[in-house]
Amino acid sequence: MAAGVAEINRCPPGGAEGITRLSELTGLPALPLDNSRGLEGPRLLAVIDEAWCIGCTLCIKACPVDCIIGAPKRMHTVIDALCTGCELCLPVCPVDCIALLPVTGERSGWQAWSKPLADQARQRYGAHQQRAARLDREQADRQVLKTEHQLADLPAHSRHTDPAILNTKRAVIEAALARARERQAARDKP
User: Fold this and answer.
1) Which residues of the chain have pLDDT under 50?
2) 28 phi-psi bin (left φ>0, alpha ψ -120 to 50, beta other)
3) Do the beta carbons of residue 83 and residue 67 sit within 8 Å?
4) Which of 15, 18, 52, 169 qualifies as a cystine partner to 40, CB 3.0-4.6 A?
5) pLDDT reported for residue 102
């Protein structure tokens, strides 16, 4: 929406009032809710059937507010007070052990959320985004170190024995590493 490629009516949790608020903020006309994105309804809570959970951790990775806890090959659970009911954990669960239960009765949209709950969800989402970016950087750094290690021992990782061919390979790999370091440095700049 911020990039101008999505309409203001694609947020079922915000409902009709959310569309009205977005319309007032953006100056765009209020549109009816796009039901292809879901229906306005009560706020939901994800609940994991612990007897079926296989501990795959896919739900943990999918949760944008880090409200699911558990460990690989161990049962997972949802911290109820932190769950936003976003449904992003559902499609990744390979054993369909996650259900969504309504927790706000008939209240939906903005009536289903308090300001403190919305602020908490926003803060947790920001923290999740920062953590994910850090993990991506760390993974990229590990890949660079692995490649540097292989470069140092290039003759052991190559079928070629000709020093000229090995030097050419080394130059190509060093150039790729330099580009990766430049991209990493550009991402790390504030």
Assistant:
1) none
2) beta
3) yes
4) 15
5) 94
Query: Which sign, positive or negative, has the C-alpha torsion 79, 82, 84, 89?
Result: negative
pLDDT score for 53: 92
- Taking 3-state DSSP, the helix, strand and coil percentages for the chain, each rounded to the nearest 5, stand at 50, 10, 40
Are 47 and 99 a contacting pair, CB within 8 Å? yes
pLDDT at 170: 76
And the tokens for 56?
Answer: 């795959």
Reported as half-sphere exposure (CB side, CA atoms, 13 A), residue 95 has a value of 14
pTM of the model: 0.65
Alpha-helical regions (H) of the chain: 15-26, 58-62, 115-152, 163-188
Are 45 and 65 within 8 A, CB to CB?
Answer: no
For residue 99, what is the enclosing H or E element?
Answer: strand 98-102
Judge contact between 47 and 4, C-beta under 8 A.
no
The pair of three-digit structure tokens given for residue 124, joined into one six-digit string? 């947790």
Amino acid 14: pLDDT:
83
pLDDT of residue 162: 76
DSSP state at residue 108: B
* Predicted pLDDT of residue 124: 94
User: Looking at residue 159, what DSSP letter applies?
Assistant: S
Question: Residue 148 phi/psi, 5° resolution?
Answer: -65, -40
Distance CA 85, CA 5 (A): 25
* CA 143 to centroid of chain Cα atoms: 21
Query: What's residue 159's pLDDT?
Result: 66
